[in-house]
């Protein structure tokens, strides 16, 4: 079902979604030529607000395939894109040039005839009516062809955007894994920004190419009117071209560097969002906020440079025509005589020349931006892809006939790629790539028989996951052979889930077989979980399963593998480390020994009870296969070193069992109450109002820019700048006055058609140096002085506006970044990854780049229109009466338009969120998607999202053009009305005044509709500000401020004011007093009247089954969620009275899922730079990573176990009095687990430790055991007492009886 084809009622407060049947195809496809050209096919849509689907001709599937064929043979992306649209662009260009010719003939040749008629007292009435009629018809023809140009361009641009978006996504599915964070962020940026630029290049580029044509036509006309010598006045335009080019090139260069900085910023923000819980618990928000601010500062520098150059280029548009016409007239008047008919037609022609300059500037800007975008797209297409597995297959004579998997001298390599930079720049900038932390598995030779169970074990970093990814087809061998006979179902070490229902995640595109499905669910022990969920297996999963516990995510991933059809080989990467004892054994018995007993299973595990049931055990050591054989064979042969290592591995694992599943989400299991109907919403972020943009939203931008006084000053500067150009034209009209003698009243009519009393013979209106007029020099000097006035006011306006916009953008992003790091975890979870990335990429990009450009053009045009109306009304005061009628028509038309465009623009913005979400999900689940061969399924889903977005975008663009042509017709009516007034007041109004009014009224035709469209676009750009504003309005953590010197923490005592807090906590004594914690008002409490007390330095083993409240215990201690009731005391201080930052910096956590960021080792350990190198190397030595880390200032590629050791190193640096270890050793091998156990006993000897335990060896070091059940304390007491009780023994009995 399409998610974004919707019926929108302006009277409703919400949008109702429904699929569109599109009976008869898209309305534009069946429209007649006139309806297509005038967008009359939009009439029903504007009234009914139904968004139809696009035809397949504009769909992703068709166009991406066409582009793929065009790229064959190694063609550059730009060349391939051009070949797709070349013929359509040629035809559209011909239509547009025809419009330009009509637009030039009407206001020049025909308007000159009208002005000549005005200056003549002998011309007949019908002659004037003829010229006025031809002028109006010519203008209407121009409007029709101009609108047809847009209609054709939209369809062409849609095809290119569909093709490029689909191409990037398909490349993502083929790219060689693992995909670096910088590359992943770049792909998201290309989808969000560069594909849009390619769209704009088609839509706006064809309009911009008219610039040179207009310039040539204008030059010919000026020579015809004033002679060759007058072309000297046009020298300002050729001189402006290099300037415009340099301004555009400089602006584009700044923008390119700004995009590189944006890539880096988004990369850090992406990692921060993935690990936001850890950042909050560790109190590292200030450090990562500063890191984001560092990249943002470089981005703002580029933004400021680009803004200044772009604004300077914008002000040249209305400035150069007036400067050019002043120079032309001053030169011409040295030897010639100027008449009103010449003067004001030339004045209009120079306005066309000014348009050509702006068009050339726009063309240069578009060309440069398109070049950058195609280069970025080309760089992505050059990323290495997963090779064809057939190239690494063995020949039939070398393949074992019973083999399911066979490796022969195979080398598997995972090269972590980061981007190089200069010494003073981040490694994340797009300056090239180098490999960091490359890992190799060498000389792999092994045969896995069909139907066998193979266990893979080894130390952390030995390559277990790499071997399994190679078998699953995620990576190809660089040398040797890897032959897989059959289809693979892969379960990665970190389970991957996508946004959808649990059932959809399990079925994963396979046909639904109810018997097979429920057998699978039961075998994977999911039936009890479904009973506790609001909608059972139809409960929607949040991004990456964040509202499920770790064990539930693992079992859903296992169920997906078991349910999958036609699979021969099952590859599981350590799925049992997150499952409790009974669940792990049940799944092994029901799945491995039951449903999959006839299939091949390759499983990574260290649990002896499972290894001993394997037909073959593979021990990885030193980057190769050290041992291979049955469990009994390897146990009995303990004479060589590898066999001893295997025995030691098992010995340390003899008591190992997972008592629980991994950490529950910060929103816990009860957060699953999301209703199924939310799936139809493009995001669960803040909803947008459907009315006008509220003042509070505008005030966010205005306040960031400096406040209302700054905005008033900005408007005044605009008025002075535009007013100076209008004054230069008015001065010409004033100059044409003839003061020597008054008008002469004629006694007889020339043709008897006009009463003698109304016939006035005006003196000849000319400007000439030969006139006997002592004021000529004064007029000329004032007119010449206007050049300096125009330039000075324009330059001042450009600088003022650019600085104001950069200040506003900088302020808004700073507020967003602070708000993100201050937001509650449940808010981040509810908004979702896609929505937040959209905010910080697309929406802030709109505020940075698009909004200033649109707003400047809008304000400029508003003041131009005001100048036009003022000048015409001064000449013809009666003009105000019909203008009022036309205004009512305008208000009526725009009311129809506004009822749809607001919602369309908001929906268009929101419709991109699923695209970002699916990109993020695909990047995280690339290995799973490939192993299941679901590229086609994911591609189809992504392409449907793009098609939905395109349908809304096309309808939104159609609505804009629907309004534009109607406004253009009103503008033509204004021109025609002015021309008629010239006829009616023939003889009563001077030819100069009539020429001034008619020349300015003719300019209204293009300016008026463009200004109204700019108003809508400005409002649409402010939708991004509105989304940001609504995000900023979401309440943050109470009293939370990531900087202690800010005033937001005024309600709390600082450590400087409170002597107690200056040394607090001093011992680590913790007391939970009747603590009740719930994640929502309608959910059962995660903690229910929990009370216990821990003495300083005690080690507390926290045990219990999934959903019992273990993680909630830590959430309450770190104040990730505020208590419903009860209190927690730390060293006698109620933690609710302590600033959140102060509290969390006093505690320490080692999370179950290690948080490692794509920055240097130093920044991963000590982002605040509080410790010296010696201390950092010391903690690395203690955790056993000193031999792995090459340098503190480089980025390393760590395995999952090594990442966990890095997290322990952080805890050693923190040296806190209270440490919370949440399943910290569930994903590491026995050797590494022993290291962590040793560190617990030595380095944390004086600290109070909460250990969410999963090993008997760890529990044996605990002083007390806390057993939780259903959010309540089931038992609490000394370890030796609790471990002898029946309810505790029941959890461990299975594993205690397993022999080594």
From TrEMBL:
Keywords, comma-separated and alphabetical: ATP-binding, Membrane, Nucleotide-binding, Repeat, Transmembrane, Transmembrane helix, Transport
Gene3D superfamilies (alphabetical): ABC transporter type 1, transmembrane domain, P-loop containing nucleotide triphosphate hydrolases
Ranges of residues in domain ABC transmembrane type-1: 100-369, 708-1020
SUPFAM superfamilies registered for this protein in UniProt: ABC transporter transmembrane region, P-loop containing nucleoside triphosphate hydrolases
Signal peptide interval: none
One term of GO molecular function: ATP hydrolysis activity
Subcellular location: Membrane
Pfam families cross-referenced by the UniProt entry: ABC_membrane, ABC_tran
Residue stretches making up the ABC transporter domain: 418-647, 1070-1295
Protein name as catalogued: Multidrug resistance-associated protein 5
Organismal lineage: Eukaryota, Metazoa, Ecdysozoa, Arthropoda, Hexapoda
């Amino acid at each position: 079902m399409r998610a974004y084809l919707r019926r929108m009622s302006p009277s409703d407060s919400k949008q109702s979604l429904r699929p569109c049947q599109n009976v008869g195809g898209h309305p534009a496809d069946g429209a007649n030529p006139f309806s297509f050209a005038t967008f009359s096919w939009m009439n029903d849509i504007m009234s009914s607000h139904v968004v139809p689907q696009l035809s397949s001709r504009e769909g992703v599937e068709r166009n991406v395939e066409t582009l793929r064929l065009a790229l064959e043979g190694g063609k550059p992306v730009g060349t391939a894109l051009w070949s797709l649209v070349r013929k359509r662009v040629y035809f559209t260009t011909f239509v547009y040039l025809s419009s330009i010719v009509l637009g030039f003939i009407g206001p020049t040749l025909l308007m000159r005839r009208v002005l000549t008629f005005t200056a003549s007292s002998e011309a007949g009435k019908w002659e004037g009516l003829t010229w006025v009629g031809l002028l109006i018809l010519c203008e209407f023809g121009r409007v029709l062809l101009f609108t047809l140009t847009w209609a054709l361009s939209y369809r062409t641009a849609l095809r290119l955007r569909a093709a490029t978006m689909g191409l990037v996504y398909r490349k993502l599915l083929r790219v060689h894994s693992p995909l670096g964070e910088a590359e992943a962020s770049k792909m998201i940026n290309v989808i969000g920004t560069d594909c849009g630029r390619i769209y704009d290049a088609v839509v706006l580029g064809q309009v911009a190419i008219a610039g040179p044509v207009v310039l040539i036509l204008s030059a010919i006309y000026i020579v015809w009117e004033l002679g060759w010598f007058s072309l000297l006045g046009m020298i300002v335009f050729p001189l402006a071209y290099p300037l415009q080019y340099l301004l555009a090139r400089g602006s584009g260069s700044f923008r390119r560097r700004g995009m590189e900085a944006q890539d880096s910023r988004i990369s850090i923000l992406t990692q921060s969002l993935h690990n936001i819980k850890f950042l909050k618990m560790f109190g590292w928000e200030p450090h990562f906020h500063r890191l984001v601010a560092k990249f943002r500062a470089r981005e703002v520098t580029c933004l400021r440079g680009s803004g200044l150059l772009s604004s300077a280029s914008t002000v040249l548009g209305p400035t150069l025509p007036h400067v050019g016409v002043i120079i032309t007239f001053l030169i011409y008047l040295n030897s010639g005589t100027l008449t009103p008919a010449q003067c004001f037609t030339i004045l209009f022609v120079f306005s066309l020349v000014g348009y050509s300059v702006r068009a050339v500037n726009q063309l240069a800007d578009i060309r440069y931006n398109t070049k950058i975008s195609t280069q970025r797209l080309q760089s992505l297409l050059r990323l290495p892809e997963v090779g064809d597995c057939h190239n690494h297959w063995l020949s039939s004579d070398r393949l074992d006939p019973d083999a399911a998997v066979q490796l022969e001298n195979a080398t598997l390599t995972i090269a972590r790629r980061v981007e190089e930079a200069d010494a003073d720049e981040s490694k994340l900038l797009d300056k090239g790539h180098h490999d960091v932390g490359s890992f190799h598995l060498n000389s792999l030779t092994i045969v896995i028989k069909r139907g066998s169970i193979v266990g893979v074990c080894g130390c952390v970093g030995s390559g277990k996951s790499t071997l399994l990814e190679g078998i699953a087809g995620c990576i190809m061998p660089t040398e040797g052979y890897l032959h897989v006979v059959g289809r693979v179902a892969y379960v990665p070490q970190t389970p991957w889930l996508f946004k959808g229902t649990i059932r959809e995640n399990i079925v994963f595109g396979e046909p639904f077989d109810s018997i097979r499905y429920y057998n699978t669910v039961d075998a994977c022990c999911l039936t009890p979980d479904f009973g506790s969920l609001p909608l059972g297996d139809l409960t929607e999963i949040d991004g990456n399963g964040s509202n499920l516990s770790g064990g539930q995510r693992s079992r859903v991933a296992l169920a997906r593998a078991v349910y999958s059809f036609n699979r021969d080989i099952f590859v599981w990467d350590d799925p049992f480390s997150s499952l409790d004892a009974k669940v792990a054994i049940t799944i092994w018995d029901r799945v491995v020994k039951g449903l999959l007993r006839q299939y091949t299973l390759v499983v990574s595990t260290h649990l002896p009870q499972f290894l001993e049931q394997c037909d073959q055990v593979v021990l990885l050591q030193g980057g190769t296969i050290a041992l291979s054989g049955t469990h009994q064979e390897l146990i009995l042969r303990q004479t060589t070193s590898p066999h001893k290592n295997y025995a030691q591995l098992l010995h340390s694992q003899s008591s190992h069992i997972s008592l629980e599943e991994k950490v529950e989400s910060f929103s816990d299991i009860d957060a699953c109450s999301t209703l199924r109907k939310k799936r139809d919403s493009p995001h669960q972020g803040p909803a947008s109002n459907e009315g006008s943009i509220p003042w509070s939203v505008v005030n966010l931008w205005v306040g960031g820019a400096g406040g209302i006084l700054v905005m008033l000053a900005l408007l005044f500067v605009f008025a002075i700048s535009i007013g100076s150009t209008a004054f230069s034209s008015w001065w010409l009209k004033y100059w044409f006055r003839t003061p020597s003698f008054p008008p002469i009243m004629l006694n007889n009519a020339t043709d008897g058609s006009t009463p003698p009393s109304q016939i006035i013979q005006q003196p000849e209106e000319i400007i000439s140096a030969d006139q006997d007029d002592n004021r000529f020099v004064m007029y000329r000097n004032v007119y010449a002085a206007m050049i300096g006035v125009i330039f000075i006011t324009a330059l001042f306006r450009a600088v003022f506006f650019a600085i104001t916009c950069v200040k506003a953008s900088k302020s808004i992003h700073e507020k967003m970044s602070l708000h993100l790091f201050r937001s509650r975890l449940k808010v981040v979870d509810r908004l979702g990854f896609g929505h937040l990335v959209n905010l910080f990429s697309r929406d802030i990009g709109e505020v940075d780049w698009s909004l200033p450009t649109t707003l400047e053009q809008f304000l400029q045009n508003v003041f131009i229109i005001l100048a036009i109306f003022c000048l015409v009304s001064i000449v013809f005061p009666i003009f105000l009466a019909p203008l009022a009628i036309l205004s009512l028509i305008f208000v009526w038309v725009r009311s129809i338009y506004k009822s749809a465009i607001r919602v369309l623009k908001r929906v268009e913005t929101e419709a991109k969120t699923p695209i970002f979400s699916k990109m993020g999900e695909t990047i995280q689940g690339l290995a799973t998607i490939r192993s299941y061969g679901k590229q086609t399924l994911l591609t189809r889903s992504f392409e449907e999202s793009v098609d939905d977005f395109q349908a809304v975008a096309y309808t939104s663009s159609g609505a804009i053009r629907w309004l534009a042509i109607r406004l253009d017709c009103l503008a033509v009516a204004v021109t025609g009305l002015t021309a008629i007034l010239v006829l009616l007041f023939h003889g009563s109004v001077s030819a100069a005044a009539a020429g001034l009014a008619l020349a300015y009224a003719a300019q209204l035709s293009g300016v008026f509709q463009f200004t109204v469209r700019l108003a809508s676009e400005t409002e649409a750009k402010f939708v991004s500000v509105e989304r940001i504003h609504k995000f900023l309005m979401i309440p943050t953590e109470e009293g939370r401020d990531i900087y202690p010197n800010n005033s937001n923490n005024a309600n709390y005592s600082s450590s400087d004011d409170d002597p107690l807090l200056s040394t607090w906590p001093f011992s680590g004594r913790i007391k939970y007093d009747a603590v009740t914690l719930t994640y929502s008002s309608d959910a059962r409490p995660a903690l229910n009247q929990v009370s216990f007390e821990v003495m300083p330095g005690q080690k507390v083993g926290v045990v219990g089954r999934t959903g019992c409240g273990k993680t909630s215990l830590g959430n309450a201690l770190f104040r990730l969620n505020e208590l419903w009731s009860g209190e927690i005391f730390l060293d006698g201080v109620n933690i609710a009275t302590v600033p959140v930052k102060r509290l969390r910096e006093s505690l320490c956590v080692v999370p179950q899922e290690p948080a490692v960021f794509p920055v240097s080792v130093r920044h991963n350990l000590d982002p605040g730079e509080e410790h010296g190198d010696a201390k950092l190397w010391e903690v690395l030595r203690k955790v056993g990573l000193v031999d792995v880390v090459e340098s503190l200032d480089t980025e390393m590629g760590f395995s999952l176990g090594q990442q966990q050791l890095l997290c322990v190193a952080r805890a050693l640096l923190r040296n806190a009095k209270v440490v919370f270890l949440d399943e910290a050793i569930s994903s590491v091998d026995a050797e590494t687990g022993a290291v962590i156990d040793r560190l617990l006993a030595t380095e944390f000897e004086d600290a109070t430790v909460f250990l969410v335990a999963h090993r008997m060896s760890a529990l044996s070091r605990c002083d007390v055991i806390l057993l939780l059940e259903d959010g309540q304390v089931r038992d609490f007491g000394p370890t030796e007492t609790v471990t002898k009780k029946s309810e505790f023994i029941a959890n461990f009995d299975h594993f205690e009886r397993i022999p080594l």
